[in-house]
Amino acid sequence: MKKIALSLVSALALASAAPAMAQTINIGHLADYSGGTSDVGQPYGQGVQDTIAWINKNGGVNGKQINSDFNEYGYQVPRALAAFKKWIGTDKVVAIQGWGTADTEALVAMVTKEEIPYYSGSYSASLTDPKGRVNERSERAAPFNFFYGPSYSDAARAMVQWAADDWKAKGGQGKPKWVHMGANHPYPNSPKAAAEAYAKELGFDVLDPVTFALTPGDYTAQCLTLKQSGANYAYLGNTAGSNISVLKACETAGVKVQFLGNVWGMGEEAMKAAGSAANGVVFPVRTAVTWSGSAPGMTTFKDISKMSDPSGNAYRSVHYMAAVCTVMYMKEAVDWADKNGGVTGVKIRDGMYQKANWVPKGTDGVCNPSTWTATDHRPTTKVDLYRSVVKGPTDAPLADLVKNGTIALEKVATIDLPRKTELQGW
Amino acid sequence: MAAESMRPCGDFRTTYRADQTIFATRLTFAFLLAGIVLLALAPLFLSSYHLSLLIQMGYLGIAALGLNILVGFSGQISIGHAVFFGFGGFASVFLAEHGVPVPIAIVLAGLWTTAVGLLFGLPATRVKGLYLAIATLAAQFILQDFFVRAAWFTGGTAGAVAAPFTILGFDMSGDQRYFYVVLVFVVVMYLFAANLMRTRDGRALIAVRDHYLSAEMMGVNLAKYRTMAFGISSFYAGIGGALYAHYIGYMSVEGLDILFSIQFLAMIIIGGLGSIMGSMLGTIFMVLLPELTGALASALQGSAIDQMLHLKDGITYMREMLIGAVIILFLMFEPDGLAHRWRQIKAYWKLYPFSY
Amino acid sequence: MTFQLLLQLVINGLIIGTLYGVVGMCFVLIYKASQVVNFAQGEFLLIGAWTCWWLLTYWQIPFFWGFLFSLAFMMLFGLALQILVLRPLIGEPVISVIMVTIGLSIFFQALMKWMFGTFAQPFPPVFSVTKVDILGLQVQTAYLMSTGVSLAIMAGFAWFFKYSRMGLAMRATAFNQQVAQSLGISVRQVFALSWGISAAVSAVAGVVVGIVNGVSAALSFFGIKVFPAVILGGLDSVLGAVVGGLIIGVLENVAHYFDSQFLHWGNLYEIVPFYVLIIILMIRPYGLFGTRDIERV
Question: Using CA atoms, how far apart are residues C121 and C54, in angstroms rounded to an integer?
Fold first, then answer.
């Protein structure tokens, strides 16, 4: 039986031995189009693909083309692992565009060992501590993990801050009540401790968390107890599918609570799916403007979008835009590495540290200025909060809904959190 | 068992010893030995990608063998194997954190998982068939919930960092070295299983599967053997999970879901229920299937067919559909699994050219 | 206040429980007739919901007709699936057939994502009144419709199995395939029909959940959710599936009540049904209404 394995494997070796070209930069791209997180994984992955295609079309990085190996892994760790091994073993990649909590967490130790920068869509605060043990809450070092946008914890803290301001502005009496809602799962729980600690600090009454599964279902029970508990601000920690169910159930049950979403739990697509139930939800957005906004950098974004949609009519969600920014930051770092001694993983990492408060060329006014240092991988602690506005039925195509104003995102605040070492890594 | 019927005509056995032997002839033994030696040389030739696939086949194969002992040999379906796999991983990480050397921690983790498996195997004393299968589904959800709650044990939702595998201070991490660790475990665990099946206990398990009433009449304690099968199966799952944890260097509850449990089932059904070798064949199949379809997909990407049909993202979905379709078609044409096909091929050549 | 909350939760549990019951019933139907444990039951919901959604949004068909068309389509789909995929497997080991249904589930999950995208899509507004007040509990009209339709289906099933020729043939087949065949019942037809009916009725649940939560791939998780309900009631009892569904529905809600009011352990909503499942199986190994094989050594 082992002989079969061996012959199969060697057959595979012949099949997959990719010719390495001299003037290319090999990177890996891990995406989920078919698994549990495909709802947001698809637009994000599309953004990564389009941006790389756009970079290659516009001269590449210093004239070198990016050779990106796309791997769809269905949010399954073993497949992500195999892809990673292929990339370091066969393709010799210098950087990886990763995706979610599962693959990022599973690969932290390995990318550190292989010294390959891993850009992911997982913004867990535990990835922001490159040295490890920066404070007693920080569990481990992640020197090669990068992401663009506020960490989950900082985004949640910003919403606590906003809630406190909102409570004051509305003239609320007594202690406002904060409740964390979400599945008992790594993703929803990632910012839980941070948000609850900060809420206590700001004088909130922190209620027992309400759990609901990561899959859509009937969450009337959760809404009824939420209503009965008298919570004022409820943080929805799950990904979009189940958040929609909760919003809808709570709308039906007549729950008057200010819901707060999270980066992957809300967006234009989720607003469309939830309809009027999503009206009023406040959530963090990673870019300075959304697709319908205007900024100098938007021309680049529109160009990038045409890579997969030549008509130029597609509406791109916040997830797509965040992906573009992530790739553009990587591109600049690769560029720096190329000019300073060759494109290697370590050099790309160092490339990320070269500037402070910078935006990649061509993305001004869209990507938020970010800073990475050798001791702190929090790109930004400034968080833009938007409110979702939904008027009327949402069964038309998304582009039309945005155009006629049925769906809109309006900015409510920019929260500038202090960059404290005590708050890093958790 | 199907294996018996595939034996060529004229191959009579006159002693019990001959009937119980693991290696039917010296040649099989020699082949196996040669195979292991060849594998042991693999790190010299293979890239870390191919090694990592072999390592994956190793630890998943161990866990799949455990499931096969439960499903294929004792006839009890389990759809919660992934959590026992996970438990082993967490237990080993936990023990290593508390000062137990990693190699010992892996074995202890296996034993610890055995205890948990026995606990969840208790319904097997009364419940059987599909009802039992769903009771294991309960184990899946209950343990998954436990992993998230028990932060002292698993690191909670944040997960736990696993210590690298070292023997007497010699670091065995990295694909080239870790490959040998997994190889040793695979050989030992597979030999152990092959050996188990020829002991009284192993044959009792098969008797329970084939006809539990007759088995009980012959003095086989049903309750004992049913729960025992759960214990053994969990031991294998635990060892597999522990090897996984120290390979990745990190253990998290994420990914230990029901889909993973179903994948284990797929491995043994495709490999062949009640076949030790089949467990490994099925694992190889299930590890390579996404890789091969992936290679096919990337070959198709940007090709003429892609341009013509405007497939674009469709390719990734076609790949998933292909995985489903291969499983369906495979079972439609080979419902008894790869092990059965392998035996047929062997029989064909043995009788060649006079097959009848 | 808390008593009223409990009451509302129980009502909600009953409404959701009926939905579980219907899907459970479909599951049992297939199991009873053809001894197949169908892991692709959730995909029936999914495909049904997407079909209805597609008819309503692209073709702008009124809901009533769109709904009927999708049921008819699902009926044909179920028949086709049985004839093309499962018929060749008759006589093969049960567990291989289970695996085939898992393969079907993987296949259709990907196909649906390809055809309809990965994101949840809302149904066009179907009811002019979106919610109704029942004893202080606001209930979605869609759920009320589902309860009504479910009850009608259950009554229909009861009649079908008791009086109709085909229903009796199905019961006979479930009882003993060989004897049924020797009496002139076409077992092949019965198998195909059971898959057809099961797919169509599942689609009802799919459409309802789709209206409430939007249609997305995650809908198929419902297929796994009904396992406890089915086992609780007894795998081969249609009545049991309904009762099991109701029990699970109420149990979830009541568990959540005690969790939120007194215990504060969190997540009991999801976990308690499984604990109860194990306890019930220890006491009654064949579920509440399942056929008991009496064997003595």
Answer: 10
Chain A hits for C6, Cβ within 8 Å: none
Looking at chain B, how many residues does it have?
A: 356
Chain-wide mean pLDDT for chain A? 88
Statement: the pTM of the whole predicted model exceeds 0.90? no
CA angle B322, B327, B331 (to 5 degrees): 145
Separation of alpha carbons B45 and A373, rounded Å: 40
**pLDDT, tens digit, 9 for 90 and up, residues B5-39:** 445 555 667 777 766 676 767 787 888 888 888 88
Residues of B in contact with C106 (CB under 8 A): 320-321, 323-324, 327
B195-247: pLDDT as tens digits: 888 888 888 888 888 888 888 888 888 888 989 999 999 999 999 999 999 99
| DSSP-based three-state secondary structure for C140 | strand
Chain B partners within 8 Å of A113 (Cβ):
174
Q: What is the maximum alpha-carbon separation in chain B?
A: 68
Question: Which chains have 3 or more CB–CB distances shorter than 8 Å to chain B?
Answer: A, C
Taking a C-beta distance cutoff of 8 angstroms, is the pair A124, A264 a contact? no
The runs of H, that is alpha helices, within A1-94 are: 2-16, 38-57, 77-86
d(CA B227, CA B120): 9
CB C18 within 8 A of CB C243: no
Closest-CA residue to A93 (of B48, B19, C33, B278): B48
Q: Where are the beta strands (DSSP E) in A261-337?
A: 282-285
Q: Where are the alpha helices (DSSP H) in chain C?
A: 2-34, 41-58, 63-81, 94-116, 141-163, 165-175, 177-182, 187-213, 222-233, 238-258, 268-283
Interface residues of A toward C, Cβ cutoff 8 Å, are 33-34, 36, 38-39, 41-42, 183-184, 208-213, 215-218, 220-222, 224-225, 228-229, 240-242, 244-245, 248-249, 252-254, 269-270, 272-275, 393-395
Question: Out of A34, A252, A275, whose CB is closest to C113?
Answer: A34
Provide the 8-state DSSP code for C119: S
Interatomic CA distance for residues A320 and A91, integer angstroms? 26
Which amino acid does the sequence have at B117?
G
Any idea what DSSP says for residue A89?
Answer: I
Q: Judge: B127–C271 Cβ closer than 8 Å, yes or no.
A: no
What pLDDT is stored for residue C296 in this prediction?
61
Residue type at A282 in one-letter notation? V
Phi and psi, residue A404, nearest 5°: -90, 10
* CB contact A9 to B (< 8 Å): yes
* CB of A326 closer than 8 Å to CB of A367: no
If DSSP codes are grouped into helix, strand and coil, which group holds residue A388? Answer: strand
Question: Which tokens in the block code for residue C269?
Answer: 């909503």
The answer to whether A236 and A246 have CB atoms below 8 angstroms apart is yes
Complex ipTM, two decimals? Answer: 0.85
- Give the whole-angstrom CA distance, residue B346 versus residue A324: 55
Q: What is the DSSP letter of B187?
A: H
pLDDT along chain A (426 residues), means of 10: 48 44 82 87 93 93 91 87 87 92 88 93 91 81 93 94 93 90 87 93 92 85 88 92 89 90 91 90 93 92 92 91 95 93 92 93 93 94 93 87 91 92 88
Q: Do B290 and A79 make contact, defined as CB atoms within 8 angstroms?
A: yes
CA distances from A252 to B302, B317, B353, C207 (A): 48, 35, 74, 18
